[in-house]
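Quick one, tokens below. Sequence please?
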């Protein structure tokens, strides 16, 4: 009798362990919320943008409202500089779109002793610490108790004039090197999670000195901008993102710093740039 009880308990424990392991494993990925995901259709392909209302709530709220109203449909990327940004919006001659509300900048936010993130590096050139929060690249100054999203390739931010609180609807996507000097003085409100190759293929509007200017008719148009939740089910692009809060991601960071692969016959310093630390994406299975 006692032996049967022991066997039953052992079987129960193994089942519990297996379930716990499966849950732990599934937590390595998170499924994007279609209500916080945007599908941008370009002439040459699709781009999926994950919005960040937890960091820039007012900008996300306005961007969703404008997207749902068709505000961006048919407009063009009119300022596209190689290795910098692709900027687009209504063709009104300036970043001040008088048809919508002016936004107060959301360049950074306050942290406290309970705030946490997955740290990548100390003493970054632009921040005391860098890391990831909810899959987004973060800068953090512990001395100030302030954190912000960083200008890594693929992030989407609101354009503005010289005044901090002058953003409206014009936006840009970082398409090249990370312009980190823009951190904290612009509002980042999302990032490209699929179709970055299509962002890179947006026609450059900036010509080198001596070259003929790019004709406006050749600017890349936005065929449509839709919330993923409004896209017909059969046309939705459903994605999962690597969970940067999971222990597996932290372990990856440690290994990446060590560069133990045989390819590195000379070891570089154990430094990671937050903008060159990958966060993987996959299709929902």
């Amino acid at each position: 009798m006692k032996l049967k009880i022991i066997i039953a308990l052992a079987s129960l424990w193994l089942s519990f362990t297996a379930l716990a392991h499966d849950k732990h494993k599934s937590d390595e990925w998170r499924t994007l919320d279609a209500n916080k995901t945007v599908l941008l259709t370009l002439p040459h392909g699709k781009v999926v943008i994950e919005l960040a209302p937890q960091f820039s709530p007012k900008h996300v709220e306005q961007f969703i409202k404008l997207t749902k109203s068709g505000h961006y449909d048919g407009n063009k990327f009119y300022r596209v500089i190689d290795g910098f940004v692709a900027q687009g919006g209504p063709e009104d001659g300036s970043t001040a779109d008088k048809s919508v509300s002016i936004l107060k900048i959301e360049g950074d936010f306050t942290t406290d002793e309970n705030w946490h993130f997955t740290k990548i590096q100390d003493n970054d050139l632009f921040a005391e610490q860098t890391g990831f929060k909810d899959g987004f690249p973060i800068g953090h100054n512990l001395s100030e108790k302030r954190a912000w999203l960083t200008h890594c390739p693929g992030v989407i931010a609101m354009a503005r004039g010289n005044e901090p609180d002058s953003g409206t609807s014009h936006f840009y996507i970082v398409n090249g090197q990370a312009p980190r000097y823009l951190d904290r003085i612009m509002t980042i409100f999302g990032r490209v999670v699929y179709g970055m190759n299509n962002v890179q293929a947006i026609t450059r509007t900036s010509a080198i000195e001596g070259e003929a200017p790019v004709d406006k008719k050749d600017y890349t148009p936005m065929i449509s901008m839709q919330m993923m939740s409004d896209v017909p089910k059969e046309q939705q692009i459903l994605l999962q993102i690597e969970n940067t809060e999971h222990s597996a991601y932290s372990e990856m960071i440690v290994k990446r710093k060590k560069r133990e692969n045989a390819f590195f016959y000379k070891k570089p310093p154990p430094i990671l740039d937050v903008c060159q630390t990958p966060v993987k994406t996959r299709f929902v299975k």
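The helical segments are 2-26, 57-68, 196-200, 247-258. Residues 30-90+100-283 form a domain with the Cyclophilin fold (CATH 2.40.100.10).
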